[in-house]
Each structure stands twice: as C-alpha cells, then as structure tokens.
Design brief:
The protein is of the alpha+beta class. It contains two helices and eight strands; from the N terminus they run H-E-E-E-E-H-E-E-E-E. The chain has a four-stranded antiparallel beta sheet, with no helix packed on it. Strands 2-7-4-5 form a four-stranded antiparallel beta sheet. The structure holds calcium ion (2 copies).
Length: 164
C-alpha cells in the first residue's frame, strides 16, 4: 500500500513539473529586424562639387504579406547641421518609382526630423504589398533643403522592425 502511495506521489510530482515548465516556457513572438544601418552618412542633394549624389538612401524591397502589418523604426540622428528637416519616408513600390522619377507624384508615410537625437516611428496597419523605406536629404518629399551651397550631412543609425 505504501509503495502505491509513493509511486502515485512520484507520478503526480513529475506531471506537475512537466505542466509547470510546459506552461512557463511560452515563447513570446519577437520583432523581426528587416533592415539596419550603422554610421550611415547622407549628403545633401546636389551641393557643389556635386559629389553628394541624389540626397536620399532607399532600403527595400520590404514585402508585407499580412492583412495588416505594424512596423517600428528606431532612428538615431547623430549629426545634423541643416536648418531644414531630414525626412523619413515609407512608401509602396509604385510610389517609390514615382519618387525616383523626375516628375512623378507620390504619396508616402513621412516623418520630419529637425534635431539630433533618438526617436521611434511607429507605422501601424500597413496594407500588404511591396514597400521602400527612404531617408531623404533632398528637395523631394515634403521638406526642401536650404540652398546655401553648404553640404548639410546627416549621420545616423537605424533599425526597422516588423512587429509581431
Ligand atoms: Ca526632402
Ligand atoms: Ca545646405
């Protein structure tokens, strides 16, 4: 009789432990890192001697397949001397194609930065599709440069996450 009680106790203890650890080890879904950049340097558009390029950097394509997606952009603008605004843009491929063309019109989620520091940009309920993330130091977008013949350089780090 004692032996049966002992075995029952062992079985119950083992089952309890399995249940406890089985429930305790719940893996929380983590944000998915889509793109990141460190020590990125972006020159102002078209400042003499015209070595500065287009004035924007694009990251993509970013394909979102869910019905609705949430993204998070952690951005650290470390150096910024411009007295105008650097822009973050997020747009569909069709809008990006128009953005990069000479006379295209486009729409985009956009965020303007006027000072150094860290910020978080949350993009919520994004429809499925193919997208591009753009950092803009040009006369495109919603903010113009300052046309003062000085190259206002942006130096920054960033990470783009797809949220669970
Ligand atoms: Ca701009
Ligand atoms: Ca300038």
């Amino acid at each position: 009789m004692k032996r049966v009680t002992f075995l029952s106790t062992v079985v119950i203890t083992v089952l309890s432990l399995l249940l406890f650890f089985g429930c305790a080890v719940v893996v929380e879904p983590q944000p998915e890192l889509l793109f990141q950049g460190t020590d990125c340097e972006l020159h102002e558009e078209g400042v003499w001697p015209f070595t500065s390029g287009l004035g924007y950097i694009a990251y993509g394509p970013i394909t979102l397949a869910d019905t609705l997606s949430d993204l998070k952009v952690d951005f650290n603008l470390r150096v910024w001397d411009g007295d105008y605004k650097l822009e973050l843009l997020f747009m569909t491929k069709a809008n990006y194609d128009d953005f990069t063309s000479t006379f295209g019109t486009y729409s985009a989620y956009h965020y303007s930065l006027s000072a150094t520091g860290t910020m978080t940009w949350n993009l919520t309920d994004i429809l499925p599709g193919v997208y591009y993330f753009v950092i803009d130091n040009s006369n495109k977008g919603w903010e113009d440069t300052d046309f003062d013949f000085l190259d206002d350089i942006a130096i920054f780090d960033f990470k783009i996450y797809k949220m669970p």
